[in-house]
TrEMBL record:
SUPFAM superfamilies: Calcium ATPase, transduction domain A (SSF81653), Calcium ATPase, transmembrane domain M (SSF81665), HAD-like (SSF56784), Metal cation-transporting ATPase, ATP-binding domain N (SSF81660). This is P-type Ca(2+) transporter. Pfam families: Cation_ATPase, Cation_ATPase_C, Cation_ATPase_N, E1-E2_ATPase, Hydrolase_3. It comes from Morella rubra (Chinese bayberry). It comes from the Eukaryota. Residues 25-99 form the Cation-transporting P-type ATPase N-terminal domain.
Amino acid sequence: MGKGGQDYRKPDIVAIKPSDREVFPAWAREIPECEEHYKVNKKSGLGSDEVERRQKIYGYNELDHHEGPSIWSLVLDQFNDTLVRILLAAAVVSFVLALYDGDEGEEKEIKAFVEPLVIFLILIVNAIVGVWQESNAEKALEALKEIQSEHAAVLRDGQKLPNLPAKELVPGDIVELRVGDKVPADMRVLELISSTLRLEQGSLTGESVAVNKTNKAVPEDSDIQGKRCFVFAGTTVVNGHCICMVTQTGMGTEIGQVHEQIQVAALCEEDTPLKKKLNEFGEMLTMIIGVICAVVWLINLKYFLTWEYVDGWPRNFKFSFEKCTYYFEIAVALAVAAIPEGLPAVITTCLALGTREMAKKNALVRKLPSVETLGCTTVICSDKTGTLTTNQMAVSKLVAMGSKVDNLRTFKVDGTTYNPSDGKIHDWPRGGMDANLQMIAKIAAVCNDASIAHAEHKYVANGIPTEAALKVLVEKMGPPEGIKYEESTSESDLLRSCGLWNEYERRIATLEFDRDRKSMGVIVKSSSGKNSLLVKSYRSGYVELIIILEEDLKEIERILISVDKLCQGAVETVLERSTKIQSLDGSVLRLDQNTRKVILDALYDMSTGALRCLGFAYKDELREFEAYDGNDDHPAHALLLDPANYSSIESDLIFVGLVGLRDPPRKEVYQAIKDCRAAGIRVMVITGDNKNTAEAICREIGVFGPNEDLRSKSLIGKEFMELRDQKAHLQQSGGLLFSRAEPRHKQEIVRLLKEDGEVVAMTGDGVNDAPALKLADIGIAMGIAGTEVAKEASDMVLADDNFSSIVAAIGEGRSIYNNMKAFIRYMISSNIGEVASIFLTAALGIPEGLIPVQLLWVNLVTDGPPATALGFNPPDKDIMKKPPRKSNDSLINAWILFRYMVIGLYVGIATVGIFIIWYTHGSFLGINLSGDGHTLVTYSQLSNWGQCSTWTNFTASPFTAGNRILSFDDPCDYFHAGKVKATTLSLSVLVAIEMFNSLNALSEDGSLLTMPPWVNPWLLLAMSVSFGLHFLILYVPFLAQIFGIVPLSFNECLLVFLVAFPTILIDEILKLVGRCTSGSQASSGRMLKPKLE
């Protein structure tokens, strides 16, 4: 091998798939067994030949590269939609007809191509947006690869290769890890070179603090958190130095399994509830269009296909290609009229506006459709740490010694953050701190290397969270007695009291933490020149809390010994090394068995209340260290060089008190949980934390009642996986808790909930959470504590990691959905009217009143602003007091469909009617229409206009259309080119009706008298914009020519308004009928209910 970096890959390498390998449980085997299995000596490493052989077997140590779908396949997928296919067919037919009509002059040719080009443009934009959204799906996998190590220090052929590319590692390689190294593969720890080894693996395992590692074997059935002798690829060494053996590489590692799970979860992604409904609507629309086209063709078959009957059989067939293409155009117009082309753009706009509102509430939406899905969320699966809690340690209880030996004083401490001004200490002595409280403050301030900073409008801890919490406690306790704040301090004003204590007590030596003492310490010299020893302990060690103790020791880094000596470890161990106690007035009394029991009882109460406990002690008589000043030449200095001496130094201590700390619930979470319950949303807490701690927090925030029996509601992950009927457990009403949960448990819970028809929102922050985030209907990543992998796999990111932001986002999602439903119904009802108009035109045999390019303009431009403005409808006040809608609820029920059919029928009658009126009447409703000089015809002539060439003595007079005078060499052109004024009236009536119809859409059943238009001023503005756009194409000659319309006179505009206004009156009557019907049903339901009960 030599220097490393060589490429071992050969053309004939065929790596074994991880699933095909039999995994050797190296974590449960002693080191010699592991060396024998992997045929390696930890002193010399693998040989070059063996490395090359294994490289051929296992391949490179890298994650698989999953080839995502090609751009072309993504583009083609965008056309796998019924509505899109109808539009595409319409565009193709329009294009063919435009080519056919191209020989009728350049002006005609340009107008003929406008329609297909607009449709093609719609399809292209839709495809671009779809491809962009789907291409983001691969980013989670790319982010996962970025956390892999690039190089490793490896032992091969007895030589150390300090910079071997990590991808060349094979099982059996011996790797050296140091502080700051990123672990390159899953490895068994063989030897600890330092006294301790700690790794940050929370992103993979969900553990909130760094983990202590050992080289001792663990049980074979240990979960990932329990594999203390294993280090995992992608995690980081934060403390220590060790030698390890590679056991799994590439896709065989834990992170490789996460990679595979993300890929599988991505394949399981489903359409959002709204998209499913729109797909169903598209399929129904296809059938409706097909039926209507068939009916139109049957009605008009006589115009382009005729025959004679000879001897009872049809003969002499005559086919008119010109008439056939005309009815092709009718079919295209039907397709264009039936499809709400502007709907995708309006939905995207509404969702985008919704994301802005959510961003104001700290919910950053990554995928637009998730805004709508949030509105029907039925279950929230939430992590505890940092989401329901602040992820900031805070002291909640302080226990000090009383005036008598067996008397304790307990103080409740408020506050949930690292802000020293957040909360106070209850029942605090008015005259200031007594000697005992001062000693506690001194130990908490001096035995502490943490600091607090104020940045970006929040307080953050630098260092160990528990120590930061102690500094906050000291600030709440106040400055040392007899020392004023005006005196200079070495620390910022934020921690003035701590700064004063550290000035008064100068640290001169540190006794590092070790697992046996469960304490750390420093020696300090006071301003009086006296040395003393102070002790700070760490945590309770009752049997039910031993597992927690193992985890929490990760936070411990040192204990300070000061002028008094500060020690930190398990409270009981410090209490065992104490022989005296300090009373309230500072006097020292003997620690007898009765007093010891009182202290242990207080400790037990705090521990079972989910508090992390720290104890404090000190020592004045230091013997060898009385004159010690930190000088290396002092005889006592040699004792500090050997950690074996620390226990004897920290003996005969004087116990002074203890504190209870916790990661407190966020203040706003209790109300958020209450809102969830009112909204019919169940909350399930899934945490890797201890069961007792999680239960205590869940009771406090309202997931469970204060006295609720939790035997069937609170399980650890393994217990849930062993249940026979897991779905029955998940179907229980109220909240549920899963503690000590692993990533696979989260995925299984999400999968089962989705199978049961629930819409699941899932929170997560680590690499291990990515598959579950991907699998959930709404994956919610933490913005502060979350990894990039989790964020890329999520649909939404919480900027403040706060549960209440999820609830606020759900409320916003419900409001957005209601508004989307309003404008979808508005647009669909408008399209029903357009279809009715074209159908009546074809059924009555009159000339085509509305051409496809006009319908495109109405659907895309004129309808767009009002539909978008409906997205600004104010939310209902009781929106979070209603149960979540079912994901299969229909957009349009039978009654709403009937209403829109009635309105649509009126739209058809109005648009076709005004077309007929212009041709057949000189005046209507008292309004003169003959001022332009156009020729009046009978209805019979109008409906048989195709036979115009056979009429005798028919003439068409020239008439005024805007600034033009239209004259006709061929009188029959009066029904073709001469219909421009009638077409303009039809189009204007359609636009006016749809504007009035947008007012109807303000409320599904509410009258405009109770919900007037000005409740949504944006809608009034949008209506003005749409009318303005319509006047623009009416009165700008170039645009009028493109759309085949002409300016209207005042009388004609007045007629348009009168014909359109009844739309409001008709819908008001229908709404009244709907309210009366639903009211009578509700009252009869109330009458029946007592009888049923």
